[in-house]
Amino acid sequence: MNRRRINRWLLYIVLTILLVVSLGPMLLILFTSVKSEAEAALQPLLPPKEIILENFKIAWERGQFANTMRVSGLLVIGTVAGQLLLCGMAAYALARLRLPAMNGVMIYLLAASTIPFFMYMVPLFITWRTIHLINTIPGTIILHTAMGIPFTTFLLRSFLVQLPSELEDAARVDGAREWQVFSKVVLPIAWPAFLTAGLLTGIGVWSSYELELIFMSGNSDLLPVMYSFSLFQGRFSRNWPLTSAGAIIAIAPILILYLAMQRRFIEGLTAGGLKA
User: Which domain holds residue 37?
Assistant: First the structure.
């Protein structure tokens, strides 16, 4: 009994440490976002003496969040739709159909997912400039979609291989074609996995900055939400209260979406086909 109590207290201590480590930075950002610039410099770790909510209004206007969030939203919607459509069909084919050279395709996707973007950035930039896709939202959506296809395909395939094939066989016996089997049988069962893939893709695109800075830097009106943070930096200093307020504004949509769908998100990562 004493050993169980000791183990329980050790578990509580470890969980408390993990909680402080994970929530501490977020709490510090929240404190800094409602401080004055002088107080943030003198007492960066203490709670604010006076709450200044005006920081959020100033950060929204100076960071041009109305425009950058619109651009990031368009990139997220287009990339998620494209990846789920293409990767869903590819994952279904790799999980269910007996395709020639399927092992070669799997090796190719695995290799493609390990190649850093900057290794093929220069020829890709030249190609995009030649076909006039530089400084365009559709061109950037295509880039995000193509770069995320290997991982998303593997994620969806790992879920689809766990689905029972009896329902699909029954649909084929009734005369359904492969597209009907995929859209009317597989998708209703596997939608938690597609939701998980969509959330992961959306978070990645929302937090992306380097790709947009290279392929859309010619037009400041087409830069994403992460570009807003550069607008809080002066020549020799950075306004940390406005930066913290901007960080909260930037992560709020993703955080709200995740909290609203966290149960299905976890199911898509861990559950098998029958449980989904």
Answer: 23-51
CA distance 228 to 66: 10
Q: Tell me what pLDDT residue 273 has.
A: 40
The answer on pLDDT for 261 being more than 60 is yes
Task: Specify if 266 maps to a domain.
Answer: yes
- Of 35, 51, 67, which residue sits at a domain end? 51
The per-residue pLDDT for range 214-225, each reduced to its tens digit, is 898 777 788 899
Quote the DSSP letter at residue 233: B
What are the CA-CA distances from residue 24 to residues 9, 13, 241, 272 (Å)?
22, 16, 17, 34
CA-to-CA distance for 260 and 199, rounded, in angstroms? 11
- 23-32, 71-80, 192-201, 255-264, range with the lowest pLDDT: 255-264
Using an 8 Å Cβ cutoff, are 143 and 125 in contact? no
User: Residues 23, 25, 30, 31: what is their CA dihedral angle, to the nearest 10 degrees?
Assistant: 110
| Mean pLDDT of the region 44-69 | 91
- What does the mean pLDDT of the chain come to? 85
How far apart are alpha carbons 45 and 47 in whole angstroms? 7
Same domain as 130, residue 47: no
For 85, other C-beta atoms within 10 Å of its C-beta total: 11
CA dist., res. 275 & res. 270, Å (int): 10
- Sign of CA pseudo-dihedral 58, 59, 61, 63: positive
